[in-house]
């Protein structure tokens, strides 16, 4: 990772296991809901193998984070209580999820509505 990329200095799951808090060395802090992380998982199951294959994942409103597992020095595997654990969340992707939260969440909610699905 280049010297210009922010580096995580803290990852913490809240006591209810519903939010991942992440702090970066540049002062950025994000609180990312488990539901948001689950539906934006970088796994092929969710993202597919191209942008046109991305899946809209319904019914994850109550999903919780079971554990975080470091993967080398570049990512974390998040295990969810619905059994999903195949996404490797790089530090860069977690930061992207924080920075683009509003845009991505709005698009997700729109996709759910458009497909007649619910959270």
Can you offer a commentary on this structure?
With 119 residues, the chain is an alpha+beta fold. The protein has one domain: NE0471 N-terminal domain-like. The protein contains four helices and six strands. It has helices spanning 34-39, 44-47, 91-99, 101-114; strands at residues 8-13, 19-24, 29-33, 65-71, 75-80, 88-90. The strands form two sheets. Strands 1-2-3 form a three-stranded antiparallel sheet. Strands 4-5-6 form a three-stranded antiparallel sheet. A hairpin with a 3-residue loop joins strand 4 (65-71) and strand 5. It starts with 7 loop residues before the first strand and ends in a 5-residue tail after the last helix. The mean pLDDT is 95.
Major sheet size, sense and barrel closure:
3 strands, antiparallel
Query: How would you describe the oligomerization state of the chains in this entry?
Result: single chain
Based on the coordinates given, report the CATH architecture.
2-Layer Sandwich
Q: How many domain regions?
A: 1
- H and E order: EEEHHEEEHH
Shape assignment: globular
Task: Give the structural class.
Answer: alpha+beta
What does the radius of gyration come to? 14 Å
Percent in strands: 25-35%
Placed side by side, the strands forming the largest sheet appear as 1-2-3
Tell me the helix content: 25-40%
Give the CATH class.
Alpha Beta
User: What's the number of helices?
Assistant: 4
How far is the first residue's CA from the last residue's CA?
A: 35 Å
Uncertain runs: none
Could you tell me the CATH topology label: NE0471 N-terminal domain-like
Total beta strands: 6
What is the residue-averaged pLDDT? 95
